[in-house]
Amino acid sequence: MRNFFNERYTFHKKRLPVYLRISVDFLIVFIFINLFSIGINIDTILIFSIWILISYLCNKYIHSSKDFIKDLKIILNSYLLFVVSILLFDLITKEIFNLPIILLIYSLSSIFFLLFLRILKKFTQRNENVLEYYFIGPNKCFINTKNILQEYGKNINLIHIKDIDLFDKNNSLKNKSFFLKKNKKSPNKINFSKNYISEIEFFEETLEALPIDSIENFDEVFMKKSKYDILKKLFDFLFAIFLLIILLPIFLIISIIIRIDSKGPIFYTQTRTGYNKKCFSIIKFRTMKNNSETQGPVWAQKNDKRITKIGRFLRKTRLDELPQIVCVLKGDLSLIGPRPERPAIEVDKLQDINYYYERYNIKPGISGWAQVNYKYGASKEDSIIKLSYDLFYLKNYSFDLDFICFFKTIKSILNLNGT
Question: 0.85 cut: is pTM over it?
Answer without folding.
Answer: no
